[in-house]
Amino acid sequence: MGENFVFQEEIRLIHKDISEYQIENEIGIEGKTEQELAASLNFVTENIEGSCQTITDPLVFDKVRSFLKHFHALSPRIASRLHDILLSAFRAQVKATSDDLDSNETDNFNDHRIRLEHYIFLIYWFLEQSEEVAKAANAASNSKSKKNKGRVYDHRPANWTVQKKKTNDVLAWLLDLKLAKLWTLSPDRVVLINLFTKPCYQFFENPANLKSTELKVSTFKILSVCIKRYDHLPAAQAAVIQNLQYWEHCAEPMAEWLHYLIDKFDHGQLADELLREIGNQEFKDTAVKDVKDTANPKTFSLFLLKMTELAPRVILKNLGVLCQLLESESYAMRLTLIDIIGKLIVELTENAEESQSQKDQVNGFFDILEERMLDPISFCRVKVLQTYIRLLDLRVKFPKRRQTLCALAIRHLQDKSSSVRKFVVRVLTKLLSTHPYDMYGGELGLEEWQNRLNTLNAELENSRTEEDIVGMGSGMIMNQQPTESSTNTATTAPAAESHPDDEIEDVDMDGNDGENKNPEAKTETDDMDIDDESNTANAHSLPPTAEDDDDDVPVAKITTSVPPRPIRIISAEKMQQLTLMKTFLADAIKFIEQIHKSIPIVGHLLSSKSKLEVVESMDFFMTAYLYKVDLAKDTSDEGKGIKMKLLDCYRALYIEADENLSKRQNINNVAKNLIELTYHTTLADLTSLEQVLSTFMADGDISNHVVDKLWDVYGFSRGQISKQQRRGAIIVLGMLAKADTEVATEKIDLMLRIGLGAVGKSDLVIAKYTCVALQRLAGTKSDKARGVYEGKRFPMAHPIFTKLKNMIESNSTSIEWFGTAEQALNAIYLLGDHPDLLCERIIKTKTQQLFADNDNQGDEIMNDKEDEQVNDNDDTSMDIDQSDQASQQTGGTSTQDRSSTPHPLNKSPFELSQLVFIVGHVALKQTVHLEVLESIWKRKKAPTENSKPKPAEAMDDELDQVGGTAEDDIGDAIIRIREREILFSPKSLLARFGPMLTEICARNKVYTDRTLQTMATLSLSKFMCVSSDFCERHLQLLLTILEKSKDPTIRSNIVIALGDMAVCFNTLIDDNITFLYNRLADNDKLVKKNAVMVLTHLILNGMVKVKGQISEMAKCLEDSDQRIADLAKLFFTELANKDNAIYNNLPDIISNLTAQTADRVEEESFHRIMKFIFSFEFVEKGKHAENVVDKLCQRFQNAEEGRGWRDIAFCLSLLPYKTEKSYRKLLEGLPYYQDKLNEESVHKYFLEIIAKGRTATKLQKVDLKSLIDELEAKVESFSGITKEDKNKTAKPKKKGNCFTCYTKRPWKLPRPIYLTNLISNTIRG
């Protein structure tokens, strides 16, 4: 057989149709039992085990070939036994060959070669058959349905992994021998090596094989030996590229093999060649693949990343070639290179010795990353940011690169991609949390760092080295006293400034506004000090500073008031330290200023539609707050998922305890934090904060100890305490009582003694918020409850009402009285069982006080008022909405003006203002109280009716139809009381004040006091909300005041009142809605903003119909006040969700905006407005778009020449034109606009319409293309513009870049509003 066996020919034959493979002594395998097959194997075993040389015996060799030819018919047990027999004999033959090669028995070389070729052929065939069976089994397993899935029969041995490893070990042993002595010709060795390597490469094709690490390593060894000793490198390179091309799972195993080759065999040439080839390949995105056989970017990316992880030095050596992939069409390859560069920076930084070449390499890599931030694909920009986030955690801080990164981040906060913006904010957060400026505790207060730099500059100016003073006179030198202490002072000066004494804290729980003038009170108030223990605890962590009484005085101020300090002589080394310190401080200040620059832009992202952006922005603000960055204490948000994130931020910042502090210190800190949250807030801020704190209270996050501490601050009376602290305490307590009524119930006496006692009368803001806290006693309506909430009621003899009455009747001329009186009246109506009786006494008392026969009373009150107004202008007054307007309305009219104005009643206008305010608010609250009574009566009436015996059904039905139910009777009675009795009954007290309010409002030239006019108008508006009859009688007067009043506060109040009247009496206001739309053009921003908000509420809730005046709202889209523009955008966004609302009013909007009026919008503004309106989905509906095209074409007939034509053509160009009918409408309307096409802009807009159609024709029918061609031909024929003219004027269209506006419709408040406004938007809906 040895003579007839030709190795290469046999290999070629088994690769053909195996059924045609001829075996001379072939035995039958198929159909035989396992016992019969075992008998045949026994014959082979007896011969081979006796001598491995018998493999050349034709009978033995042909029997083994017969088994392999019918391998699919073998059971796993027979296949395993066959493999063991062959492997045992093969191992013996290899050992015999090795012995003869070592002893150089050349006579036996040819025999060994022949026998080895037989064994290698059989082993190769067995391995190939095994892999084919495994592939077939996997394919069958994948094709089986889940329902009919059965057991797939794998003919390989059960312990195949172990046996395959043994086979690989024997093959590797054979390859370690000097095979060149056996196969002397190179072609023969190539054929032999290919037989060794082909099963190895096939091994990688099956993902299941790669699960065995031992099997992988044995395969790696065979391939590595072939490359190292038998020049297999070119074939291996081609095989690796082919595997990477077609098998995605091969990426990481190929990289592992190359690392094994480098690590175990010190052979890196294959890796270098592969990386060079990959670097020179052309990759295309899989989405636009033109050829199926092009390189797969995903697999090559995984390969390169694994190589970077295992052998970064090899990647670094070939990075010059790989960097060409940064210009690849495939963004996946660019992503990979960005990731690789980041990993190489980590490698060079952590595992390499510092050298100039290494620094140059790292700087070059950073340059590449910075350049990639301009990549047009957002995924690449995101990958750069992710890489930076990983690099910022390194031990090396790269301070210069951090400055550049911060500037890049600020630039990309306005990136058009939401994901990029999200990671930019995350980068800014990471920059803050890992900043290198931690010498002074890590806080980043700009003022403190600036003070340190100023101090250091002063030290440098007064310090010289010995070399610097060589040229100075000896007398000057003698005056210098260089001492060690002066040197130490120079070095410790920055440290002394690291924690300067803070300004007087807003929450000073010692009870001192400034100096403590009462030492005894100081000792008594130690218990009330919230800051004392925390400051003491922090003092131990401060660096040592000079003990000086003037440490907190800035150095710059000292130098201006004292003579210049003498020049100090310091060493050159110390001067260098000071210079380096100056650079350090300057870099820190630059970094802090960059963070300050980013804060307003990140504030914009808090109103983004992307939840992830908002969450990242909140993390940024929380981190900035923790590092004491200025302007970062307030943030904002909306949404359910985001609400939870907001609460987590607040909890971490203000509520959670510090483990390093004692329990008492933590309680003090939490109370202090909560009180500080109320400083410098608006009404919207407090509304949002109330929701946050009430949620915390309901969840049990605020302990009773903190509540007790707040009550201690509020009720503190043993010394002095600032107004802000007491105000903040009662504000927070009122918010907490919203969730837990017991918070207020237990401290009623304290509130009556402090808030409604002497303290409250001296500070009406405290009194106002005390009234708010008292209102919590009534309880809160649950979310599930329906109808009007009655609340807990107290008898009118309760001391609460006496105190409230006294507070309302108190003689005060402060503007804060009105807010206090409003909340006091609210408390009376919420808590009293008969509030109308008490309010009646209050009105009578105030009336008697005002109209008493005391001629000098008015003058005395005016003098008192003048004195109190001087004292009321303090900086601690609370900020509320329209505070500027309120201050104007009191300060605008001086005392002299009021005294000179003729008053028919000859009484104080301020007292009259108080009276009319009380009357108006009581009228409104009485209406609400009637609704509560109606609900109570109906509920009491229901069980009574149910208990009555039921009459006959027929009679019951008739009675119900004629007389109605008891609930109807109650409702009718309440309506009658509201409409006819409250304001018209002769017995009604309020009815007497209606004519007086009308008199004051109508005769504004007689009653000229601004406060009086404001309150009279406000009360008249409240009266009009009570009765439709009263409203109808006085509506024209109110509208006249709205049109003619010069006071923006009055106009603003009337706008809001008209919104309330529209809810109550829809028909009356709907007929006069034009007056409300006119306020959209008001000169005052506050009036305009309120008009936008009121109309938004009325229209979106269906209170008034959408009419042509909506164009006035469209003009607000271009308002100079960003807040008004944002509200208008929000209005149209919500309106677009209503069925065809914008589509139905689009003609009126265009007509009014293009009309030739004095207030006509500019052409550019018109374009921006229409772009926004046409961006909604209503134009996506084909039928709507066709109708709009038809109507716009008809408008060309009556349009103004020039501007009118351009406006209509521009609107036409904004439509999508997705159907044939749209272009057919354009062709049908050609007679309307054919004579306008000679206008250059009109012609340009029609060419844009045609271009849209050209783009759409790729996916449309041929008919559309013919229509577009016809339209284009007619447009060109009527335009009179030649192709040469068109080419001259044509400009390339600029592509959008990554800095396009960060959201398509930034209407959701894209301005820096902050965290405390978060939930108010959700509450208001």
Automatic annotation (TrEMBL):
Main localization of the protein described in the UniProt heading: nucleus
Subcellular location: Chromosome; Nucleus
SUPFAM superfamilies: ARM repeat
Record's GO cellular component terms: condensed chromosome, centromeric region; condensin complex; nucleus
InterPro entries: ARM-like, ARM-type_fold, CND1/NCAPD3, Cnd1_C, Condensin_cplx_su1, Condensin_cplx_su1_N
Keyword Cell division: yes
Domain of life the protein comes from: Eukaryota
Biased composition (Acidic residues): 500-513, 865-882
Biological process per Gene Ontology, one example term: cell division
Record key words, sorted: Cell cycle, Cell division, Chromosome, DNA condensation, Mitosis, Nucleus
Biased composition (Basic and acidic residues): 514-525
Region feature Disordered, mapped onto this chain: 476-553, 854-906
Keyword Cell cycle: yes
Biased composition (Low complexity): 482-497, 883-901
A GO term, aspect molecular function: histone binding
Condensin complex subunit 1 C-terminal domain location: 1049-1213
Domain Condensin complex subunit 1 N-terminal: 78-236
Its job: Regulatory subunit of the condensin complex, a complex required for conversion of interphase chromatin into mitotic-like condense chromosomes. The condensin complex probably introduces positive supercoils into relaxed DNA in the presence of type I topoisomerases and converts nicked DNA into positive knotted forms in the presence of type II topoisomerases.
Homology family: Belongs to the CND1 (condensin subunit 1) family.
Protein name: Condensin complex subunit 1
Organism: Absidia repens
